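Quick one:
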Amino acid sequence: LVFLDVLDPRPDALECVQDAASRAVGHIETEDVLQVSHPRGVVLVFPGDPEDGLFVALGLRDALEHEASTRADFAARMSIHLGPVRIVDGVAQGEGPTVGAQLASVAAAGQILSSRSFFEVVSSLSAEHKGLLHPLGRRRTSEGKELDVYELGPHVQREAEVTWPTGRTPAAGVAAVPAPPVLQPIPLVTP
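Output:
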């Protein structure tokens, strides 16, 4: 499941996130996704293929980042988890939405955090999928529960590059970034 947590308290922000979620899952067959409103946002349940949740979450992040660039004080965060969900009277219940909400609560605005169960299943599908999930270690939720957390998305966007002056050794545990190669001009040959 994908859990979207809206940080903007304005009612139209929740409507915006619900609309974005509807557009993001528009290409998926109706029996392969269930969109359930939540007081803090939206829960998208994918009963079949976990890859659907992976790609919808990435698309939603892009859509919500665009929305944040056009609306002042708009922010949302997401989580993705693999766990049991029960829908009762239009409300998502069970371990899945509970862990999804806990994961989202430790995410930063614009960030997608994944549970260990989702990481293990999706990373077993392909090396490319595994490369999208980066371990962040354990995080403690406001309820005091500790979760193994993985960030979904390109790792290089979340990292600062560290370079070292030549002749100096980086601090212990930090890898030095090699100097870029010197590029030589290629002679232009004309007929």
